[in-house]
């Protein structure tokens, strides 16, 4: 992650890598934001806003895979099959987008960048768990 200033974000420890099975996503509350963290089978980690902008589906519970047309790694919303690119949150053929969070793996720990003013929240926990 880049160096931070008071106006930027700070890395917040969210979870251990083992808590997210390869090829799946999980939702965590990070500084009052619901963040879906995805672990690809190749080891890459991505983080997006957990809420689909279409109808509010939980992206952390969505199907992770490669979109055949764009060849991008995506998550598919479990409600209406809207797809979003994991690399930047851009919608695939739907004109929507979700916020992408900077994520970093340090050893076995996953950190997500959170706004400095809200990073003082309690330790991140699983959404709705």
Could you explain the architecture of this structure?
There is one protein chain. This protein has 129 residues and is mainly β. 0% of the residues lie in helices and 43% in strands. It has strands at residues 9-16, 24-30, 33-39, 45-49, 63-66, 73-76, 83-85, 91-92, 100-101, 103-106, 109-115, 125-126. A five-stranded antiparallel beta sheet has the order 9-4-3-2-12, with no helix packed on it. A four-stranded antiparallel beta sheet has the order 5-6-7-8, with no helix packed on it. The chain has a three-stranded antiparallel beta sheet with strand order 1-11-10, with no helix packed on it. A hairpin with a 2-residue loop joins strand 2 and strand 3 (33-39). Mean pLDDT is 87; it is low at 1-6 and 119-123.
In short:
With 129 residues, the protein is mostly beta strands. It is built from no helices and twelve strands.
Features:
disordered N terminus, 5-stranded antiparallel sheet, 129 residues, 43% strand, globular, 4-stranded antiparallel sheet, mainly beta
Topology:
Layout: E1 9-16, E2 24-30, E3 33-39, E4 45-49, E5 63-66, E6 73-76, E7 83-85, E8 91-92, E9 100-101, E10 103-106, E11 109-115, E12 125-126
Antiparallel strand pairs: 1-11, 2-3, 2-12, 3-4, 4-9, 5-6, 6-7, 7-8, 10-11
Reading the helices and strands in chain order gives EEEEEEEEEEEE
For the biggest β-sheet, the strand order reads: 9-4-3-2-12
> What is the number of helical segments per DSSP (H or I, 4+ residues)?
0
Number of strands: 12
Structural class: mainly beta
Mean pLDDT: 87
- Distance linking N and C termini: 29 Å
Strand content: 35-45%
Rg, please? 14 Å
What about the largest sheet? 5 strands, antiparallel
Specify the overall morphology.
globular
Low-confidence stretches: 1-6, 119-123
């Amino acid at each position: 992650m880049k160096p931070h200033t008071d106006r930027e974000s700070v890395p917040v420890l969210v979870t251990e890598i083992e808590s997210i099975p390869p090829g799946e996503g999980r939702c965590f509350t990070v500084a009052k934001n619901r963040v879906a963290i995805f672990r690809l089978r190749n080891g890459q980690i991505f983080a997006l806003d957990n809420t689909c902008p279409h109808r509010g589906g939980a992206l952390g519970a969505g199907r992770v895979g490669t979109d055949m047309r764009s060849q991008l790694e995506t998550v598919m919303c479990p409600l209406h099959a809207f797809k979003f690119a994991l690399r930047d949150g851009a919608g695939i053929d739907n004109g929507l987008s979700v916020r992408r969070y900077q994520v970093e793996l340090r050893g076995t720990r996953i950190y997500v960048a959170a706004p400095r003013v809200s990073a003082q929240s309690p330790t991140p926990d699983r959404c709705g768990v």
